[in-house]
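Q: How do we represent a protein-ligand complex in a form that can be generated token by token?
A: Start from the inputs.
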Amino acid sequence: MFTHANAADAHPNEPTELVDQQHCMFCHTSDAPFLAPSFHQIADRYRDVPNAASMLEHKLRKGGRAHWGDTAMPLPPERGGPLSAEDAHKLIEWVMSQ
Ligand code: HEC
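Then emit the structure tokens for the protein with heme C bound:
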């Protein structure tokens, strides 16, 4: 079963339904690298990168080259279902706020 790795310290603006539906916390945590970089690491890495958010939204929906290691993120259908551009935007906004 998928579990919420950091339910106890969920971010206030977390789009919880999307996060659950796409199982983000199965691989990511807010602050501890686990199967994937933590959302803090991701936010730090891209904070000063122009257009990073749109690149990440696109990647979240369509996939792309791995930026952290050899393992790329699975595409939305493998994570739980299709992801709209609007929902990808909400998720990346939330990741970048961490
Ligand atoms: C099955 C495991 C898994 C799930 C589920 C998952 N991720 Fe990831 N994610 C990864 C891995 C592995 C990476 C590192 C990929 C790379 O090197 O670019 C990653 C990278 C990322 C990145 C950085 C991409 C980059 O180009 O630097 C973001 C942002 C991200 N994930 C957000 C999310 C969000 C939001 C969700 C839920 C919608 C999610 N992830 C669900 C495994 C996962």
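Residues 23 and 79 are 6 Å apart (CA to CA). The pocket of heme C is lined by residues 22-24, 26-28, 35-37, 42, 56, 59-60, 66-69, 71-74, 79, 91, 95 (CB under 6 Å).
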